[in-house]
Amino acid sequence: MSNCEQTSSFSVAGDGLVETTLSSEHLYQGKILNLRRDTVRLAKDQQASREVVEHVDSVAAVPLLDDGQVVLVEQWRHPIEQALLEIPAGIIDPGEQPAEAIRRELTEEIGYAAGQLELLFSVYLAPGYSQELIHIFLAQDLQSAEAAPDDDEIIRVRKILFEDAVAACLRGELTDAKTVAGLLAVAARRQPG
Questions:
Q1: For domain 58-190, which CATH number applies: 3.40.50.300, 3.30.70.600, 3.90.79.10, 3.40.1350.10?
Q2: What is the DSSP track for the chain?
Q3: Taking the model in full, what pTM does it have?
């Protein structure tokens, strides 16, 4: 017999699944993330250890130009030791709203200001070990602005036909999760019916 329960909606009750935090120990405090170890009580009155990466929430956008191209950024990602092609993204600064943060990031990273901005969805990036929530937008009606990347960012701006970027996702050539999710979400919205 399967542990899966069939449901007709996507709501989650969580009954019988709740873990109660008994204690927390901060192991590392960094510039953009912290690491803590929690001791939790499971529903069956057992205890377990959970390692949690505390990371501020973030934003990303699929920036579409009027000529059918999407603006992507190519940058080196040290943890995987390779360059990736991605949609522009960044963290939300203290006091910023997600829409303000992505407007700032678009200008800084790709040199465009968005005339039209629409939230596509918000998702947890890796809820098994982090609480980071990313808000992914569609950015249109783009106007040139002066790019100003952070001092520690080396970014190459790439313009690609949107259809070619979606095809690259489907072939597994783009491997950044936020980029794949954002591009495929926009592609699904553009399909008739």
A1: 3.90.79.10
A2: --S----SS-----TTT--EEEEEEEEEE-SSEEEEEEEEE-TTS-EEEEEEEEE--EEEEEEB-TTSEEEEEEEEEGGGTEEEEE--EEEPPTT--HHHHHHHHHHHHHSEEEEEEEEEEEEES-TTTB--EEEEEEEEEEEE------TT---EEEEEEHHHHHHHHHTT----HHHHHHHHHHHHHHS--
A3: 0.89
